[in-house]
TrEMBL record, chain A:
Principal place of residence: nucleus
Keywords, ordered alphabetically: Metal-binding, Nucleus, Zinc, Zinc-finger
Family matches, as InterPro entries: Znf_C2H2_type (IPR013087)
Alphabetized GO MF terms: zinc ion binding
Region of interest: Disordered: 170-197, 215-245, 291-328
One cellular-component annotation, GO: nucleus
UniProt domain C2H2-type: residue ranges: 39-60
Cellular compartment(s): Nucleus
Name of the protein in question: 5628_t:CDS:1
PROSITE patterns: ZINC_FINGER_C2H2_1
Low complexity composition-biased segments: 185-196, 291-307
Residue stretches of biased makeup (Polar residues): 219-231
TrEMBL record, chain B:
UniProt-recorded name of the protein: 6302_t:CDS:1
Keywords attached to this entry: Repeat, WD repeat
Pfam families tied to this protein: ANAPC4_WD40, WD40
Source domain of life: Eukaryota
Metal-binding is among the record's keywords: no
Taxonomic source organism: Paraglomus brasilianum
């Protein structure tokens, strides 16, 4: 276990604009000059965002308001960043927290101890963890959970914490297994917590159904999710899930709030793909999905599972089998000079209703 | 349909009485052909100088007209419809005549303009694509495709056919009997529209899931194929109904059920211009021959089924294209 202890998270120099980290601060500064402080008109590399603004204003007589290639929420040219200097302290903390998660410190243990297998992604576990850390007083309420003695409530909290730092291999103690009052089995047999957290994969008609839990709906809650017409392909904001007291002694309610912190922590791994942030009407970059080729589809499917969409998407026209024109043509009024069913009925079409 | 407002673009008078299925500008004159679900195919003359348009000709199918296309010399218009017939309208004689016949509605029709004898190519829901000499009643060639033909585009020598179940069949028109390539769609949802690049090196494909794929034919360019999302509003994902390439610049437009259209530059991967919601799905688009006009049809596309069907929403707008909105732009420095 000595080796484990050595695995302390070392914070490498990292770029505030895109959450990339580097071997050395020199490299970081080079990166910032090349990626974020380069004049879009003449490719001159400036030292700071402010320097770039002044350069663009004086040399090219144009104004620039966003830092190129910066993740959403960090495009401001007003923040004076040079290397690691000038990073807002809250972002430093957020970055550190994300590193802890990525290093597997927290996650692995949670995963091995997870009751219903390990279908929680890192982000979910992180946010769950955060919800507890930030809000231990009201994160969970146990008193009314059926079968759980109320007098144990006081001693429960340490258990809750300890699970995150438990060594792997140490079997959970008995009270521990009951320390998941927020994830009782629903009537359907599915853990409602999972139903509440997991966004529907791939949209489609099923997207509207969330089982019997309150819908997961972070839409619009976070400015990071407000994409302009097109959605960046980067890993979107992850809502923090916190749990309030049970209602009427039945299942607890799940309340989702969005935390910018969580959002930032998620961006690091996906930034390479989301170049297209900061779009406006003209000159908007197309965010590219190279993984969209046929070969990449499976990979993308996996991404969709582990990745939270900013909003659950709903196909306005959702019948993948039959085109809208075929449906329209089967309408009575368009069967002008033929008998019924001159439209070939597609055999693969299992929907019985014509529209 | 929030934020919808009537576009300031010119409305063509005397529009069809039902949904607009296709638009086509003549390659030699400012004639705009409009095929409609009201069975008619209309030809309007667009007077650019006076900023006016008026009806020039009209003929009818026995069922809804689903597609139309001009011959290269602009003297003839062909169209196809749910009456399973392909019809040819000769501007000189002003007479329509039937030139093609399928077992099911003809969804798409194109001229094979590099052939000396004026071949017409039709794609149908009967899972065939047929070539027709306009002077003979029988097809010159009939090819079977994997499923119902939904869309097809031809820029010689490239013919790309998109069918139901996401099949893509690519032909070299010089060798129409054998597919050059058969592949599944790069997009995961139903193919809505395919449009070839003006230089025939690839094609753009739009799906019902608000996404456009840019596909290059050449394998060595394969890595440059990509796709992007568009025509989405909040959590709603709209179908991409139309993709039209600018004839000179090679940039392209997309239009969708959401009622917006955009101009894009595929090479620099940028949106050149976005337009606000017109309050109705856009069912068809086209550029005129030199790309100075962009015509788009505000008409119901059946994306929300019969319930949302309103008879009165059938308008063809003419948008004067600003050069800066369609000129390719250098890629943004990253």
């Amino acid at each position: 276990m000595g080796k484990k202890k050595k695995k302390q998270v070392v914070v490498r120099p990292w770029c505030w604009y895109c959450e990339r980290d580097f071997e050395d601060e020199k490299v970081l500064i080079q990166h910032q000059k090349a990626k974020h402080f380069k004049c879009p008109h003449c490719s001159k590399k400036l030292n700071t965002a402010g320097g770039m603004v002044v350069h663009v204003a004086q040399v090219h007589k144009e104004t620039i308001t966003v830092v190129p290639n910066a993740i959403r929420g960090r495009e401001s040219t007003d923040v004076e960043i040079f290397g690691m200097e000038g990073i807002p302290p809250e972002d430093v903390i957020a970055h550190q927290a994300s590193l802890e998660v990525e290093s597997g410190h927290v996650v692995k243990k949670l995963r091995t101890d997870s009751i219903d297998g390990s279908d929680l992604s890192e982000g979910k576990q992180l946010t769950q963890h955060q919800a507890m850390m930030q809000n231990p007083s009201n994160a969970y309420s146990y008193g009314t959970y059926p079968g759980y003695p109320a007098q144990q409530t006081a001693s429960l909290m340490p258990h809750q914490y300890s699970q995150f730092y438990q060594r792997p291999g140490v079997p959970p103690t008995q009270p521990y297994s009951q320390a998941y009052p927020y994830r009782p089995s629903g009537p359907s047999g599915t853990p409602p917590a999972a139903a509440g957290w997991r966004p529907p994969v791939g949209g489609g008609p099923a997207a509207a159904s969330y089982g019997n839990m309150p819908p997961y709906n972070p839409s619009g809650a976070n400015p990071q999710t407000a994409f302009n017409g097109m959605q960046s392909y980067g890993r979107p904001a992850t809502p923090t899930t916190s749990v309030t007291s049970p209602v009427d002694g039945t299942y607890p309610q799940y309340v989702t709030t969005t935390s910018p912190q969580a959002a930032y922590q998620q961006t690091g791994t996906a930034m390479a793909m989301s170049n297209g942030v900061g779009m406006d009407d003209s000159g908007a970059a197309i965010s590219i999905e190279q993984g969209q080729s046929v070969a990449g589809q499976q990979q993308q499917g996996q991404q969709q599972q582990t990745q939270k969409k900013p909003t659950a998407t709903v196909l306005v026209y959702s019948d993948n089998e039959v085109s809208p024109e075929e449906k329209r043509a089967s309408l009575e009024k368009y069967r002008i000079s033929f008998g019924a069913s001159h439209i070939i009925a597609p055999s693969s079409h299992q929907h019985s209703r014509p529209f | 349909m929030i934020n919808s407002e009537q576009p300031k673009d010119y409305r063509i008078p005397d529009p069809p009485g039902d949904g607009i299925s296709a638009l086509a500008f003549s390659p030699v004159a400012d004639y705009l052909a409009v095929s409609s679900w009201d069975t008619s195919v209309r030809i309007y003359e667009v007077n650019a100088a006076a900023g006016a348009a008026y009806g020039k000709a009209l003929y009818k199918h026995d069922g809804a007209a689903l597609c139309c296309a001009w011959s290269k010399d602009g003297s003839k218009l062909v169209s196809g419809g749910t009456d399973k017939a392909g019809r040819l309208f000769d501007l000189a004689t002003q007479q329509p005549m039937q030139i093609a016949q399928h077992e099911a509605p003809i969804k798409t029709i194109k001229w094979v303009d590099n052939q000396p004898n004026n071949l017409v190519c039709t794609g149908s829901w009967d899972k065939t694509v047929k070539y027709w000499d306009t002077r003979t009643p029988n097809p010159v060639l009939s090819i079977d495709v994997p499923d119902r033909v939904y869309t097809m585009d031809l820029v010689s020598p490239l013919l790309v056919i998109g069918t139901a179940d996401r099949h893509i069949v690519i032909y070299n028109i010089a060798n129409p009997g054998t597919p050059y390539k058969t592949q599944p769609s790069p997009l995961k949802y139903q193919t809505r529209v395919i449009s070839c690049f003006v230089n025939a090196t690839g094609y753009a494909i739009g799906s019902i899931e608000g996404r456009v794929g840019i596909q290059y034919l050449d394998d060595k360019d394969g890595h440059s194929s990509f796709s992007f999302k568009c025509h989405r509003e909040g959590s709603n994902v709209y179908s991409v109904n139309a993709i039209s390439f600018h004839p000179l610049h090679g940039t392209f437009s997309t239009a969708g059920s959401d009622g917006t259209f955009n101009f894009w530059d595929k090479d620099s991967k940028q949106r050149l211009k976005g337009f606000s919601n017109i309050g109705s799905p856009i069912s068809a688009t086209t550029f005129n021959r030199n790309g100075t006009f962009f015509a788009y049809a505000a008409a119901y596309d059946w994306s929300k089924g019969y319930q949302s069907f309103q008879q009165n929403q059938n308008i063809v707008y003419l948008h004067g294209v600003k050069e800066d909105d369609v000129k390719p732009r250098p890629a943004k420095k990253r």
